[in-house]
Amino acid sequence: MVLFTTVEAVNDELGIPNIEGVEGEPYISPGGLFSPDRVNSMIAKFSDMINTEHRTNVQKTEYVEYIFGCGLVTIMVSHYPIISITTIEEQLSDGSWSEKTQGMNPNSDDFYLLKADAGIIKFHSPVSEYFKVTYYAGYYDDEDENADVPGIFNEACTLMTKIAIAGSKTFLEENKDQVPKWKELLRQWKGELKTLMDNHIVRNGEGAWIIGHYEKALTSWEWLV
Fold first, then answer.
1. pLDDT at residue 219 above 60?
2. Can you tell me the distance from the alpha carbon of 89 to that of 64, in angstroms, rounded to the nearest whole number?
3. Minimal CA–CA distance to 2: which of 159, 148, 156, 117?
4. C-alpha 15: how far from chain center
5. Where are the domains of the chain?
6. How is 179-206 classified by DSSP, letter by letter?
7. N or C: which end of the chain has fewer CB within 10 A?
8. Average pLDDT value for residue range 119-123
9. pLDDT for 26-76, tens place per residue?
10. Pair 206, 55: CB distance under 8 Å
């Protein structure tokens, strides 16, 4: 699982503790309130939530779709961006499947990937049969540790993580003389997270989960991360 944010990014958002004018250790550090390992576990959980919430898996996933392409020159699959097309098979009159050829030569090939980012495949001539499309879609492979995470996912994961930390009992006790400041920040972050969820990430339940826990933390400051 590729993590959608980093400990460093969350630390940058939270800032450095300042107790009676004395700067302490970063909130997330071996000597701070939260260990990096603990926060990385939170980031992994929130990254998985975002991956689940989005209309298509962010990470590389295999899909099989059945499409009726009668008379069409282009077809659009449901999940994108397309990473690769494994096979497109045409159903014959006897019910068997015949594999089509991918390539740019209209004399020898049947189709090519027209727009990977929109999930559009184009045939060299109109098709008239039922097709099975097997393909991979997503932004990167599981093994791609240096993946360039799309900005909305990075932002949502950073928000989720800093809301969880700043809404915890441990964090409150450390910042008890600055409660109004952190309450206001939490209100702002919750609004930003809700906007991202509503406008960019399809919610299947998990997005509401973090927002619900945020509200509990905001009113009672008792949620332990």
1. no
2. 11
3. 148
4. 25
5. 7-57+144-220, 61-137
6. HHHHHHHHHHHHHHHHHHHHHHS--SSH
7. N
8. 96
9. 999 998 889 999 999 989 888 888 877 776 677 788 999 999 888 889 999
10. no
- pLDDT (tens digit per residue) in 174-213: 888 888 999 899 889 988 988 887 777 765 555 566 566 5
Give the type of residue at 113: L
d(CA 4, CA 17): 25
Polymer length of the chain: 225
In the prediction, which pLDDT does 223 show? 43
Q: Burial code of 70-105, b = ≥16 C-beta within 10 A, e = fewer? A: eebeebebebbebbebeebbbeeeeeeeeebebeee
Domain 61-137 maps to which CATH number in 2.120.10, 3.30.750, 2.60.320, 2.60.40?
2.60.320
Give the residue from 50, 8, 2, 13 showing the smallest Cα distance to 182. 13
State how far the Cα of 41 lies from the Cα of 3, in Å rounded to an integer.
Answer: 10
Distance CA 218, CA 216 (A): 5
Q: Is 180 left (phi over 0), alpha (psi -120 to 50) or beta?
A: alpha
Structure-block tokens of residue 9? 């990014």
Query: What mean pLDDT, rounded, does the chain reach?
Result: 83
d(CA 106, CA 69): 18
Start-end of H helices in the chain? 7-14, 36-53, 151-166, 169-174, 179-200, 206-220
Q: Distance between CA 158 and CA 140 in Å, rounded?
A: 19
